[in-house]
Amino acid sequence: MGGNQSSYVVPGGTCRVQRWPKTHEEPITSVFAVSPSVCLSSSKDNTFSQFDFKNGKLQKRWHGHSAEVTEAVYGHQSQMYFSASRDRVIHVWNKDSVSPVKSLAGHELVVTALSLNQDNSMLVSGSRDNALILWDVQQGVSVLKNSISRNLITHIHWAPHSNMIAQTGEDKDVRIWDARTLKVSQTFPRKQHIQLCCQISDDRNYCLTSSNGFSGNGCEATLWDLRQSGIVREFKGHMESVGGCCFIPSTLSNGQNLLATCSSDCSVRVWDEQTAECVAVETVPGSGPLTSMAVFPDSCLCVGSFNVGVSTFQLEKQLERWILFQVASF
Length: 330
Hints:
CATH architecture of the largest domain: 7 Propeller
Pfam family, one: WD40
WD repeats: 62-103, 104-145, 153-187, 235-281
Oligomer: single chain
Keywords: Repeat, WD repeat
Shape: globular
Helix content: under 10%
Structural class: mainly beta
Number of helices: 0
InterPro entries: WD40/YVTN_repeat-like_dom_sf (IPR015943), WD40_PAC1 (IPR020472), WD40_repeat_CS (IPR019775), WD40_repeat_dom_sf (IPR036322), WD40_rpt (IPR001680), WDR31 (IPR040066)
Largest sheet: 6 strands, mixed
CATH superfamily of the largest domain: YVTN repeat-like/Quinoprotein amine dehydrogenase
């Protein structure tokens, strides 16, 4: 698979960007870290794919949905793949399958969000039909279902090694669900804008969410304290909707608590969790809205976009200053 390089100047030197052919011609809807340098991406082209961005190799593309694939995730324990779609169906795949090994039908509208528990035995899905469904992956059946009026679900994150499921929605609420009962166990003060993304920290003490908005109104990330059900701080600087957010593991940040966001303003930002200071920012020219992001074990960030596929960034500290720079696109 051919590619080309371009260069641009960053503090401390020149950065070369490896530009591989795009894996999707339509907008990217989600990205997911499979392993170092291997990224799963879903698209409005009705497919999802797995790409090795270090070697420029498209490892697999899965076809099977009749509409946009809204999210795709990988089970590191089960080595299975899961895809959600506007066709209202969730498909389960293995790496070599041409057709789904299972199909999970139960939502009445577009399935917008997926997340797995730690051992990959259970899957939770969310939809614009206001419902969360808990699935037994092995049996391929729904175990629990719960709906809340006007709760059009935008994103879900099942915290590792726990029964906590974070969920955001178009009703502007952030909820924590108990996976054992699929009932809401915790709510927070309602935000002013639709919440688009959520992630629970590895220590399960905090939840990070991102907001819709425009012209700098809204457009923030919010850090919530799960022990007190309140806001710790907000991270403001983006000018348009913040489509993706994630914690950066302390092993990649020299022990400093950092988080990252991406926005429809074409920028990726890294923030100091303690001070809310933006410590690094990089733009993706011509990208259109940045829709989603994933962090990799080697301090790479992958960011999905409307117009330029997936962009990969490296985060480094040079002379006491954090530097974020693009290293690849595909």
